[in-house]
Every structure is written in C-alpha cells, then in structure tokens.
Aminotransferase class V domain-containing protein (Candidatus Viridilinea mediisalina), 465 residues
Amino acid sequence: MAIVSTFARNPLADQLVGNDLRLARREGPPAPALNFDYAATTPPLRSVHRAVERFLAIYGSVHRGAGLKSQAASAAYEEARAIVGRFVGARPGQHQVIFTRNTTEAFNLLARRLKFRPDQVVLTTELEHHANDLPWRAVAPVVHVRATATGALDLDHYAALLQRYSGRVRLVAVTGASNVTGHMPPIHELAVLAHAHGAEIAVDAAQLVAHRQLDLGDLNDPAHLDYVALSGHKLYAPYGAGALIGRADTFALGAPMLVGGGSVRRVTSRIVDWADGPAREEAGTPNAVGAIALAAACLALQEVGFAWLSAHETALTSYALAQLARVPGLWIYGDCDPDQADTRLGVIPFCLDQFDPHLVAAMLSYEAGIAVRSGSFCAQPYVRRLLAREEAGCDVGQLGLVRASIGLATSKQEIDSLVATLHAIARGDFDGLYVYDQVTKGYHPHGWNQQYNLSFFEQATPLAA
C-alpha cells in the first residue's frame, strides 16, 4: 500500500469496518465515532471481513470429515496456522502454533504445560496485564521485577533477581509492550540474560504485534524468545481467536490442558494416546473462522509494512504527548517526553485534576463521541505503582486513570478533537449533569435515554420443507 502523508486524513481509515459510524451525543447531531481505545479492542479490517466471508462458503468440520468442504476447511485452517507462525518468525521444526481464544487462554495453557521443580519460580514484572501474572501464581511461586517511578521496567532489579534465583528461575514472563503506558521492555536483551541463567522467556505480545515487527529467533540464538502469545481482537481480527507460539519440544510430551475429541490418536477404557503436533492442544472443534481472520489480519499488517506503521504511530504519539501536556490540570503517566516516542507505543494514560477518570471518559464519549478507556486496564499492581509516585498527580487519581491509545486509523485531526474536548472539560464548558450508575459502574448524562439499535439479527422465518 502506498502511503504518502502522515498527517493527512489517514488513508487506512476506510479499511476498517464501522469507520463511517456516527453516534448520538448529549447535544447536537450524531457525530463520527472517534476511536482512542485500540489498546483494548480493535475494529476488524475490511480485508479480514472479506476473508471470513470467503471462508464461510467452504466452512466444514475441520479435521473431522472426508467431505470436500471439510477437506477445504482443514487446508485453510492449516494455512492460517502457517501464516500466523511466519508473522512472528516461527521456525519450522522448532516452533509450534497453537490456536487459542486469546492471550489469557494461551498463558493458562502454557502454565499448565510447563514442568516445574518444587524449588523453581516464575519471574514476572509489575508491568503485566493480569493475563501474564495470575496464571503463573497457580503453578509456582511468582517474583515480580519492579517498575520504575515512570513505569519503565527496572533492568537492574531484573538482573539482580536473576542472580539471586539463578538456577531456580523456570520462566521469565514479560510484556512486549505495556497496555497501560506503551512501554516496550528490551525483550531480546531480557532473553539473553534469562537464558544465561537457565530460564526460558515468554512474551505477552498482545499489545505489541499490531504495531511492531516481532521475531522469535532461532533457538540457537541466545536472544531468542521461547514463547509468545497474541490475541486477534487486538490485531484487527475480533473473531474470537488468539495464538500461543512456542517451543515444539515443550508440547511434544505430556497431557494437554484441555482434553477431548481431536486431541487423541487412540483411546481405550484404560489407555489414552495423545495426538502429535498442535492437535494435542486443540481439543474440540476449533474456531476456524477466528483462525482465518487472525491470519488475514497478519497478512494485511505485513502489506501495510511495519516500517510505515512504526513511523506513523511514533509521529502521532509525539504529537499527542505534546498537545496533551498543554491541557490545564492534566497529568500524563509513564514516559511523557515527545522526543522519546519512538521507544514506546501510542498508549497514553492520564488523569485530569479534580475529575473522576470514569467521568472524564464518559464526558469524552457523550459530548464528542470519543472512545477511551478508564480504570486500571486489568493491570492493577502497575497502575497502583504509577499512582504512588511522589512528585505529583491527580487528587482523584486513586480511582484509576484514563487511557487514550493510537491505532491504524488514528489521525492528527482526531488527536486535535481529543485535546480540544479535554480543554473544554477542564474549563467546565459542559453544563450537563452526569450521574453515576451503580449497575454499569459508569457515568451518563442525567435523563439520558438513548436506545441503541440492537436489531442485528434477521427475523426468523420458517424453513421451506
């Protein structure tokens, strides 16, 4: 795709399903929906939607039938597996691609497939999403590497902990990019140190792979990554699939986490002979539609090119940091230096002094049609660390933060709209009364009774005999 200008209307915007949607506001006519919530869930690419529609014509029982549709569906499913593997640099024979529902399921699967000695620990970090923390607590003692006051990984503390537990660290579990601050730890440098101390490394790549190229590396390279996990819903393919990609030898032996049809070769009343390859980990009928969507998204991002994506998002992140810093009473958490935008992703947490972060998120939505996220973003220890910094912060910051995140279709003009609306909130320009809803745990304008059209399903009609 030929991309010419960074700050012109984003040429990729029309390639997202729903980009032309207009939503009701508290006052005035319906407004375009401005998305600054890419870090949570991305809209589907039109090319992904088209790939799913084509696949549905041949949809059949994957790996379960002799019918021609079943054979075609099985071939497409395995082609999707190969595409996802190449997307992250998986080496044939060294790595295995296992389709999951999402990153959370991937790490739960891995946690139950790794073997631990009684004296071994998992080294994870304070930066992690709960998905890369809680699964490890269920199988081994967990030790956390500190985050610095600005939200970066404390590399000295990491090295010290590896030294302290040398020979006992079974796994290092670390994010490739924080879903709270966009901080990107040097994962390949961390891998070298982990391997030197006899540990493997697993990377939560859910936030990373939609923005930066990832390469697992050859297993003979000390900087290689042993396992990575990703989710389609953060990769412009929200069709319910994710993937765990990692060392094939880890999954060659032992019982899988999920057992049932498809994961076995032979079953008697006393014996179970498990299947080889990824089938061992994919019991039951797989989400073939999700796998096709995930593979199509991988191909689409490769076509756009990560060099362009990185440069585009770096420029927008730098611009956003500089403009947000001018909003009175607004505090940015994490690295807020616009000149360092190339070292991070466009995930920007902030709070507005004297304003509940959930109220700020609601006002952005109802007043201007701007979608952001508020709260702790499934990373409560990390957000607490950020809010505990001594120098300054918001008076109501302990309620969480507001997060604006940049994605494929973000433009400079959208950032201007976000910043202008925050200026208006800070000035008190909006005179609408907002009330807290105990059921939804969020705010809405007093008297708001907008009914959303939920008629997504066709009226059922009797099937012809």
About this structure: The chain has two domains: 13-44+305-445, 47-303.
